[in-house]
Every structure is written in structure tokens, then in C-alpha cells.
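Attaching the record inline, Q. Sequence:
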Amino acid sequence: MSAPLAGIRIIEVGVMLAGPYATMLLADLGAEVIKVEPPGGEISRQVSDSYFASLNRNKKSVVIDLRSDEGKARLGELVADSHALLVNMKPSAIKKLGLTYESLRRYNEKLVCVAMTGFGLEGGDDPAFDYVIQAATGVAAMTGNPDDPPTLPGYSSADNSTGLTAALGLLAQIVSGRGGQVDVCLRDVMLSQLNYRAAAYLNDGVVPQRYPYGAHSYYVPAQLFETADGYLALFITHDGFWKAFSAEAGIEGFPTMAERAARRDEVLAVVSAALATDTAAGWEERLRPLGIPVAAVRTLPEALERTPEVIVRAGDFRLVGSPIKVTGYQPEYRPAPQVGEHDDVVRAHSS
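Structure, as predicted:
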């Protein structure tokens, strides 16, 4: 089966994580992704070889100095024969380098230009790194135990989420058959992902609050619990789950969701006492066959050891493969390119 995005050509002027992650997902699905790098290479090459490999497999690399007239002309040649251009930089840099639809439409009316920024293409140049956006959008304030300082997830949730969103916007505009500008910013993506939390405040005046062990604001019990050995994530979202769990755990009462929510502290006390009688692994083994949403808290190494099927090899590196599974299609994982590795190939293709 041919790749889902075979024949689609995307130019990436991406740095670090958000932009390169978006285009890597598209490259895994068969798009030809040409990574435009400045002389000396994209800055994330300086982080580590594995960092760069994890975000840039399946791409081609060309070196173009976009500040020069020659570089601008060469970019024009590339986009004339491409479906999309994706860039993540400060708005002023995007405009100065001519990486917008208005600047490039003379080469290709159907070109889709995706700008990934912190606050929007017209939102200014304030620094917008992942952790800054998490702080600015309320994510940090609602994360952690109530009496502890605000905290951040252990991975780049804003950058990764924006990469996924940008890839969706890019494909949507290609499918429309029209060229144009797509504007995706980290701030709006994270606010969008706070969907029901934002709706509760906007419509009902409910200000998000933190509960111990990351407890859910609606469902009870739905949080982390300490066990005889390790921590357990238990997520009881309806009365059927509760009936099966309480029977296995030897707990009586609290049969409805409404009652469990109203008597949160009582429920958590009896559930905590019950779960303390066995290990996290033991509870997982007992509750999984009952269809109850549960998982022992594991480290990343432990999680990867349990899921070898997600690990792929791209050149010298072992990486987590594409999360998108398409029936009949298996991605070919090629290593991340060397700086300018495809200069001659791409130049010949565009001439």
C-alpha cells in the first residue's frame, strides 16, 4: 500500500521541537519533508544527536541562507513545487524572512503556509517557550498538590500539542484545495486543551482547584493512590466501574456518582485504606481483568520495556515510532539527515 501522504511535499523551516515534530509526523506518513537549515545547521543539532534524531527522521536537509537574495530565490523555487511550508519562529522573523503566504503566493497560489508562534502571527515577539506557555495559560497553576507550589509536567506538553495541531491545520488546508495562511500558536492550543475546565469557569464561574494526588474535579475516585508498594492510578468514571471495583476491594456503599462526589473525603478514605493492603502491581493484576481503568505508576524506562512494539530503529538510533497506524501501511524509518545532505538532490528536483 502506498503511503497515505505520498506525493505531498512540505518545506520545513523549523527549530527545536514544535515545528520539527509536526513535520516528522507527516514524514512518517509518507510526505516528502525538506528541512531548510541555516549554514551550520538547525540549533537543535547542538542539544544532542539523539534529540535531533527523535524529531527529524524521514526528512531531507538543504542548507539555505534565507537572509540572502540567493537564498530567498532558492526558497521560491522550492515552494513553487510544494504543497506547504511550515515554520516555527518569532512573528517578526517569519515576516522578515518572507515565510508567509502573502510573500510566497507569487510562486504558488495553492501553497499552504503554516506559522507556529507563541501568541499568534500578529501577537508580538514575547518569548514563548513551552514552560512559559504552561505558566501563562493556567496549566502550571492547576498542577500539583494543593499545598505545594505550581508544577510542570515532565515533558514538553505545549510544544508537542502545538505540533499535532499544526499538522492537522496544514492537512486541512491542503485538502481544501486552497492555498493560504494557517496561524497556530502555543497559547491558544493550550487554552483549547483546557476545554471543560475553561467551560466550567466561563459558564458556571467554577475556578479550577487542585486536589491531592492529581484527583479529577468531577469523578471520584479518580486519582493516584499510595499502595503497599508503589502508586496506582485509578479512574472510576461511572457506577459500573465502581460496582466492580468496590466488590473486589471489599468496600460497601457510595453506589452513585453523585453520592461519591458529594462525599469525596469519605470515599477517598475507604479507597485509600483498601488499596494500602496490596501493591500497585497486585491491584493492576486484579482490576484489569474486571475492565476497570487502572495502572501502576511506572518510570519511562519501565514503560518502554513493557512496550517493545513501539520502538523502531532509524539509522543508529532507537526511537518511539509513529503513533498513527494505517491499515496496510508500514512506515520506513530513515535516519535524520546530515546538514545539507540533500542539497544536490533537491536542487536537481526543483530545476
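The chain has a mean pLDDT of 96. Residues 157-176 form the longest helix (20 residues).

More tomorrow.
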